[in-house]
Structure to design on (339 residues):
């Protein structure tokens, strides 16, 4: 479907990923990184997660014709994650809820 | 999670929920990768060598959306920049006893095992950290393999629903941030809003939409979130 070289992407991504992960392990003076940079990096996961969930959770269900079913899954995940730290519970709750919604004729 | 000796075994026990969560989420990855016409080896390589849940799904989305290679790799890097902080927190937490442990233990840091490791009261042993990374890595790879091989056996509605496992994982990870208060909600919501608008209506493509949304959300966050008294990663 596309002429992308997937393995080149995997290798580049793996190398970059590893550099990101290993740098702090090799650094001994992490405290010297400017505060603004550390702040940016602390806040970015929150923004990233927001952008990861919307609109992806809805568009991923486009083929089913019921993208709004994502609301059920996200709601179930948020509700169960509120009460449990165990990640598998929100995952299971979301799959079951979404599946149940998609079952309705 | 405190007390007891932080052995390899103890690490596996603490990592068990992650192992299960990763296994089910990566089934969706394997399945989705196959339906995006990736070969088994290409699919498995993503999980073996990059081991990064959210970014792997994002890569599939970008591949399907027709993004270019450099765009995908750049998005990967931007999305995973957060590991700089997580790795730093984990690196400080592990009592390194041999210099080779640094490059080895750096490989498998993820959002979830970072959270488990840092939830321990004191320092952790390299064996413990090794288990907390290795267990989920195996779970993630077995799930990827199963999803690619057998995912298509699942009914269409179930496999569509299984993709929601990832978004559930994201939601479960985001929820503690949202509970920190309105500024955090604004941060996530602005990134979500910008991404939705750009992706659906701008014609920029998912790659750039996501990068711009993440940057805009973070910058807004830097304005609205009060500075922590100590610049420590939470």
């Amino acid at each position: 479907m596309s002429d992308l070289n997937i393995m080149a992407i995997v290798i580049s991504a793996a190398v970059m990923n590893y550099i990101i992960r290993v740098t702090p392990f090799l650094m001994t003076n992490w405290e010297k990184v400017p505060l603004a940079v550390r702040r940016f990096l602390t806040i970015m996961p929150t923004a990233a997660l927001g952008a990861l969930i919307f609109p992806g959770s809805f568009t991923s269900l486009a083929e089913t014709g019921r993208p709004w079913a994502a609301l059920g899954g996200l709601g179930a995940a948020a509700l169960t994650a509120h009460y449990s730290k165990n990640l598998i519970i929100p995952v299971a709750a979301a799959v079951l809820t979404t599946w149940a919604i998609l079952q309705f004729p | 999670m405190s007390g007891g000796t932080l052995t390899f075994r103890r690490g596996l026990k603490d990592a068990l929920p992650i192992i299960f969560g990763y296994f089910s989420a990566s089934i969706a990855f394997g399945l989705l990768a196959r339906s995006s016409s990736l070969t088994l080896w290409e699919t498995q390589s993503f999980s073996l060598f990059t081991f990064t849940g959210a970014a792997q799904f994002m890569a599939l989305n970008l591949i399907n959306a027709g993004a270019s290679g450099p765009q995908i790799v750049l998005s990967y890097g931007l999305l995973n920049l957060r590991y700089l902080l997580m790795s730093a927190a984990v690196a400080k937490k592990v009592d390194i006893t041999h210099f080779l442990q640094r490059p080895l233990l750096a490989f498998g840091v993820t959002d979830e095992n970072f959270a488990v490791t840092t939830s321990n009261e004191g320092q952790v042993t390299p064996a413990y950290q090794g288990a907390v990374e290795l267990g989920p890595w195996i779970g993630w790879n077995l799930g990827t393999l199963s999803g690619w091989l057998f995912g298509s056996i699942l009914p269409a509605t179930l496999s569509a629903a299984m993709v929601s496992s990832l978004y559930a994982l994201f939601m479960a990870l985001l929820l503690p941030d949202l509970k920190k208060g309105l500024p955090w909600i604004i941060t996530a919501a602005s990134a979500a809003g910008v991404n939705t608008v750009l992706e659906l209506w701008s014609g920029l493509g998912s790659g750039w939409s996501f990068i711009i949304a993440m940057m805009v959300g973070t910058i807004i966050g830097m304005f609205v979130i009060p500075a922590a008294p100590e610049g420590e990663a939470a």
User: Anything to note?
Assistant: Residues 8-162 of chain B form one domain. Chain B touches chain A through 99 residues (CB under 8 Å). The CA atoms of residues 197 and 209 of chain B lie 9 Å apart. Chain B has two domains: 8-162, 180-234.
